Amino acid sequence: MPSQIVADLDGVAGLSDDWPSSPDAVSALGQQHAWVMACAETLVDPGRLRIVAAFSGGSCAIAPLIERPMHGRLELLGLRDIGEPTDFAGAADSAIAELVEAVIDLKRPILLGRLPAESATIPALRRACHGRALMVILPAPPSPYIALDPSWQEPERRIPKRKRAIRRARQHAAEFGDVRFRLLRPSPGGELNGLLDEAWEIEGSGWKGRQGTALDRVRAGRFFRAYASAAAQQKTFWISFLDIGAHTAAMEFGVELGGRFWALKTGFNEAFSAAAPGRLLTLETIRHAARSGFRTYELLGAPMPWKTDWTSDAHVNVKVAIYPATSLRTVVALSADAWRIGTRRLGSAVSRSS
C-alpha cells in the first residue's frame, strides 16, 4: 500500500496507529494526530478532507490537506483558521519522497504555509515538481520563540529594559488586591471544561469580544476545546491564571511537546490593564518552563511587539505554492494569486525558486 487518500473523519481516526512522530520539529505542534483530528472535527466539512498517507519501508508520512471548493486548490488543514506553522508529518526520507510524489500526482494547485524554511518537505517537493509543476516560495511570518537556559528561571534579569515596567505592573496589581498565580494540568472532562469556560470568559471580556473575534464566537474556539481535550488525555495540556483579589485577571494555555512549551492562547481582563496582567502571567509561565527544563518557549503567532519584548529569536517560515503544468485549475489559481500578491512579486518568487 504505497499511498492512500483519506476523506472522512473515521479514516483520519484510523490513521492514529501509523501516524509518524516528529517531536523535535519546529512545526511538531501542527504535525500531531491530535491536532489534525481536532482540525478535521471542528474546522471543515469532512467531505473536503484530502489526507494523503504514504508508506515506505515500514514508515509512514502524511500530508494533512483539504480541498478548497473555488478552484480545487489543496491547502494544509487548519491553516486559515489557526494559522500556526505546520508541515507534512514523517521522519523517514523514503516515506516523505513517496508522499510528495503522491501529492504531485494529484495534479492540483497546492498552497502550503506557514511551512518551516528548514523543512525536509521543501527539497523533496522541488525534486518531485521538476518537469511536472511550477513551485513558488514566498516569505511567511516568522514564529517567535525563546531559547531557554537556566538564566530564564529569573526572566526579569533577561529583559532589563522592561524590569521597571514589570515592577510598576506588580505594584499596580497589589493595589487591586492579593496577586496569585495558578498553573494547572487539568484532567479531561468536567475539570478541563470548567477551566476552559473561565479562560474563554476572560478572553472574550475585552476588545476581542467587542469585535466578535473571541474564542466563544469563532470556529477556532471549537478547535481549541477539542485539541485541549485530546492533549489533556495525553497529560500534556497546561492552563494558567493570574488572580488579583477576587478576580481572574489573565489566562494562558498551552502544551508541552518535544521538550518545548507551546503557548497557544492568552487573554486578560481589561479592568486590570494598569497591572499588565498578561505580561505578569507570561513572566511566570516562562519561569515555570525554564525551571521545568524545556528547551524553548514557543510564543507562536506573529512577532507582535509584546512578543519581541521577550525575544528577538524567531523560526523562519515560508509559503510554498505549486501549480501543475497541465491543469486547468492552475490557470485559475495562478491568476488569482497574481492578482492578490502582485505579478511582479510572484514573478520574483518564481525566479528565486527555479
Structure in words:
The chain has helices at about 10-15, 30, 35-40, 95-105, 120-130, 165-175, 190-205, 205-210, 220-235, 275-290, 305-310, 330-340, 345-354, and strands at about 5, 50-55, 60-65, 75, 110-115, 135-145, 180-185, 235-245, 245-255, 260-270, 295-300, 315-325. With about 350 residues, it is an alpha+beta fold. The mean pLDDT is about 90. The protein has two domains: about 5-140 and about 320-354; about 150-295, Aminopeptidase, CATH 3.40.630. Helix 7 (about 190-205) runs antiparallel to helix 9 and helix 12 packs across helix 13. A twelve-stranded mixed sheet has the order 1-2-3-4-5-12-6-11-10-9-8-7, with helices on both faces. The longest helix has 15 residues, at about 220-235.
> Helix amount, in percent?
25-40%
Give the strand tally.
12
Q: Globular, elongated, flat, extended or rod-shaped: what is the shape?
A: elongated
Low-confidence regions: none
Sheet having the most strands: 12 strands, mixed
Gyration radius from CA atoms, angstroms? 22 Å
Counting H and I runs of at least 4 residues, what is the number of helices? 13
Number of domains: 2
C-alpha end-to-end distance: 33 Å
Task: Give the topology string: H per helix, E per strand.
Answer: EHHHEEEHEHEHEHHHEEEHEHEHH
Mean pLDDT: 89
Strand order of the largest sheet: 1-2-3-4-5-12-6-11-10-9-8-7
- Report strand %: 25-35%
Helix-strand category: alpha+beta
